[in-house]
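Take just one protein record:
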Amino acid sequence: MPELRVDKVEFERPLLRKHMPELDVLRGLAILSVVLYHGLYWDGGHASGKLSKLIINASVFGWLGVNLFFVLSGFLITGILLDTKGRPDYFRRFYLRRVQRILPAYLAVIVVLYLFHYLTPGSILVSLLFLANYTQFLPLTTNYGPFWSLSVEEQFYLLWPMLVAKVNVRVFTTIAIAICFVDPALRWLVASGRIHFLGDIHSSTPLIADNLAIGALLAIFARSSYGTLRNGLRLGLFTMAAGFLILLVGFPFGILHRTTTLGAALQTTPWNFFFAGLLIFLLARQSPWYSSKYAAPMRFLGYISYGLYLIHLLIFNAYDWCVQRTSGSFQPVLQGAFLRLLLAGSAAIFVAWLSRRFFEEPFLRRRAKLAKEGNSPQKDTISFQPEEKTVSIDV
């Protein structure tokens, strides 16, 4: 009987805790998926053999890494906003931290892209205004792929804090749930040609906000009285099962393909459910594996994920440019998909580490100093008070 009581008490512990290595591992998984997608499937090198082609074709699902990033962002950013709501410096604190985290590396990449003629003055202006996800409405000839999702994030940062500040948690929860239902319907209307003014169905913020909203719902749940380990496990399993069920039911009707109306409307929906369920399940599971040496590579990728996302496509393009100017028998070898991934991917990881260690960290330390002066945690964190204990999640 005592052992059962201990287990019961253990399961009633809050989901959120001081250090959550699961988040770092999920970030690492997200960026690894994107790098594999661009390194193998998207303009990848040549490969022969059935197994090689099978691996390359399977890497097409790597684009879903961006959706995982959105779910994580919705969870983390909403948590920050909920925990600081009501502070007199609510807006200043949030935006100052976001500027110090996002802009230094972003502006540096814009400069590099311009120097290497990837961006025109017009596309630089669009990038600086974070409108790269609406280039179909603008007379631009060049754009840099990763910028579209950063534009979505910045538009989210602009609107979401105002919403959290203006409404109570109950209303906010209702709005987030509504977004999860309305967005697929809007995508259906756009895909069927009934609406033409909302932008691209896969990059316009109003059309993909459900990615972020489902993460926001997790942040609300984790801070509620229901946010225990037991309930987290149950919700995680249920949500992942719901995702698989939607995928299974929709498969015969083309849910995996954007070329069908159903696929355009619901292609990301089962994955959003699965990623949300996985996130909350891992936080509730609290396995020591995520803090172990075996998960260290994924935590490292999570640590450099922002910089790696920004520069990896540039490094792959630079590798292709160099290979095209290589003569002799080495060129076919260097064009091999897996050698390209190994060499260019390793270079991208190294550059991203240099950026994080020697360029981004000084700004992050300055941000930590400002946080300390404001009598708050020394990192950009989510802070809350479960069971009278101060807890923070490093983001």
In short: Residues 1-6, 375-394 have pLDDT under 50 and may be disordered. The beta strands are 381-384, 391-394. The longest helix spans residues 337-373.
